[in-house]
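Re: that backbone. Tokens:
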């Protein structure tokens, strides 16, 4: 792990990025305190439908307005008229 001051990081950003692309981790400090980490980017695989089966809803009341949301918009008195 390499520690670099923010001003040095500004001057040598391209070289630091090259080092990070080789797997190195670089900590950028401001006034002696770490503020950021430069780490190699890791791709994440997107899985479509990854939450399938984890959420259920009632088919009969799915289209009815939620009373809590109506209350947020219209207040307690006007629940009957959206």
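Recovered sequence:
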């Amino acid at each position: 792990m390499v520690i670099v001051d923010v001003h040095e990081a500004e001057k040598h950003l391209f070289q630091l990025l090259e080092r990070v692309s080789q797997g190195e981790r670089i900590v950028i400090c401001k006034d002696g305190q770490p503020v950021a980490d430069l780490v190699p980017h890791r791709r994440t695989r997107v899985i479509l439908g990854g939450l399938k089966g984890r959420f259920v809803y009632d088919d009969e009341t799915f289209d009815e307005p939620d009373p809590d949301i109506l209350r947020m918009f219209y207040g307690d008195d006007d629940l009957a008229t959206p």
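Residues 45 and 51 are 14 Å apart (CA to CA). The mean pLDDT is 86.
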